[in-house]
Write a structure and sequence with these properties.
The protein is an alpha+beta fold. It is built from 8 helices and 30 strands.
């Protein structure tokens, strides 16, 4: 039958029979070319998968027949000869390929790379590469290697049992691989994508935030309405203290925006609003001896009132001549006036009473700023200790200081806070230096007692009020001084010259020709 050629192995993993056997017409009932057989690496028995058996049918030809084989067929290579009736045809098989080579050839036939196989099998690429190189020592252990081989064989379309037998045969020629405790390979996960902001998601987020904000607001309001405000006194810190002074500043903390009320000795009451940080302070006068203060807070939005906080401040009484007594009946604390003539009345054991004022704020509801700081004024004390007078103030909030002094030069002081807000026109006419003849018209009508004119002696003053205008004619403009709505204007002309002046705020005073 001629000389025999050895089967030729191609890179794709297929085996081809060649030589005279290719020209044989029949062996038995099959073409001779169909007797190119595969090798079983374990027992030498011929094993063909159904697909391989179906592919090994090809008519004889004048050239070498090609037998199409799958990677599974490569594992079932057999060492049997082509047939018993043709034992005279010697076939020398090539050295059997290693298991790794067969896996590599099967993967190449499948047309995938290691990374695609890794994604499909969930077996890490480095372990698949170790299988294809037959480097079993690089694998985590025999238990995992079995699982890897079985899964990989099924993925490549190979017979997993034949692959396991081939692995055991190859493993028998090397040192057994001991078990290694490792974590099982985790399946690869599809990379997570970022959050996709859809209109529905945005609307849901906005609604959720709105509900949470509304719930927080309701919770805060419920807590606020259910709890009274808090107030604390920081200075003086002690409940009872001794201070040798005429006044002291009380300071403390409270809920922001609440009104802090301070009840001072006598009829005095002070109110202050806590700022946005909750701090408050108030200057209060002190009397000789014991001064009791009661501090509380009221929330204006809920009308809830805190519990009272008490402070007792003692002012030492000096040894020696006693200070005079002083009782101020007018003005009352926090009194409001619609003109600048503040009545000052009371009683004292001293022989001299002086009044001064300090501006502490604008008039309620705003208004024009106050004029110059008023000068201190002395009020005469009668034999019975009573005193009475008036003190002219501009619009605004003032602190009046009323002091009484005795012969031993000891002084007793009372303070009152008053507010002045003018309505219409208020004019005070003072005569200084020389007497002055006056005639006055209020809202166009002559004031009674001034129709024929009236002489006012130096050191005296008269007050006039009108809805819109006041007109004054004086026989000596330089001796006549004016105070308009609490603002001192002084003399408006030279001494000894008769002039007529019209006062109609907010216009500036102006001279007129009226002389009737």
């Amino acid at each position: 039958m001629g000389s025999a050629k050895r089967p030729t192995r191609h890179a794709a993993g297929e085996w081809f029979g060649a030589g005279p056997l290719a020209g044989a017409e029949r062996v038995g009932s099959e073409p001779a070319a169909t007797y190119s057989r595969l090798w079983d690496f374990r027992a030498g028995a011929r094993i063909l998968s159904p697909r391989a058996a179906a592919s090994v049918t090809q008519p004889h030809a004048t050239r070498e027949p090609r037998i199409a084989m799958t990677a599974r067929d490569q594992i079932h290579l057999t060492d049997r000869r082509l047939g018993e009736r043709h034992r005279s045809v010697p076939i020398t098989p090539e050295p059997m390929p290693r298991l790794g080579e067969l896996l590599l050839a099967a993967r190449e036939r499948k047309g995938v790379d290691l990374y695609r196989a890794e994604r499909d099998t969930k077996i890490r690429a480095k372990y698949l590469g170790a299988l294809e190189r037959s480097e079993f020592r690089e694998l985590p252990g025999s238990v995992y290697t079995k699982g890897f081989l079985r899964n990989y064989a099924l993925y490549l379309g190979l017979d997993p049992d034949a692959v396991m037998r081939r692995w055991k045969d190859e493993l028998g020629t090397t040192k057994p691989i001991g078990p290694t405790i490792v974590s099982p390979p985790r399946p690869l996960e599809t990379p997570r994508t970022g959050i996709t902001f859809t209109p529905g998601l945005i609307v849901a987020a906005i609604l959720t935030l709105g509900v949470l904000a509304f719930g927080a607001y309701l919770t805060m309001q419920l807590m606020r309405f259910s709890q009274p405000p808090k107030v604390a006194v920081g200075q003086p810190a002690a409940a009872v203290s001794e201070i040798n002074a005429e006044e002291v500043t009380l300071t403390g903390t409270a809920d922001p925006g609440v009104t802090v009320t301070i009840l001072a000795p006598g009829p005095q009451t002070f109110r202050v609003t806590a700022d946005e940080t909750g701090k408050w302070s108030q200057l209060v006068p002190l009397n000789k001896g014991q001064n009791d203060f009661t501090i509380s807070a009221i929330d204006p939005s809920t009308s809830k009132e805190s519990g009272p906080v008490s402070r007792v401040i003692t002012v030492p009484i000096p040894v020696g001549p006693e200070a005079p007594t002083l009782t101020v009946s007018s003005p009352n604390a926090s009194a409001a006036f619609t003109n600048g003539a503040i009545p000052i009345t009371g009683t004292t054991s001293g022989n001299q009473v002086a009044v001064s004022a300090e501006l502490v704020g604008p008039a309620e509801g705003g208004g024009p700023p106050a004029g110059r700081q008023p000068q201190p004024k002395e009020i005469e004390v009668g034999r019975n200790g009573a005193f009475s007078g008036s003190y002219q103030l501009a619009p605004g909030e003032w602190t009046l200081t009323i002091s009484s002094t005795n012969a031993q030069n000891k002084t007793t002081t009372e303070r009152r806070t008053v507010s002045v807000a003018f309505t219409g026109v208020n004019l005070v006419v003072e005569v200084r230096g020389d007497p002055a003849w006056l005639k006055v018209w209020v809202d166009g009508k002559v004031v009674g007692g001034y129709a024929a004119g009236r002489i006012v002696q130096p050191g005296n003053s008269v007050d006039f009020s009108a809805d819109g205008r006041i007109e004054v004619r004086t026989g000596s403009s330089g001796s006549t001084h004016f105070i308009l709505n609490g603002e001192r204007l002084g003399a408006l002309g030279p001494a000894g010259i008769p002039e007529t002046w019209l006062f109609s705020p907010p216009d500036e005073p102006r001279q007129t020709d009226r002389n009737d």
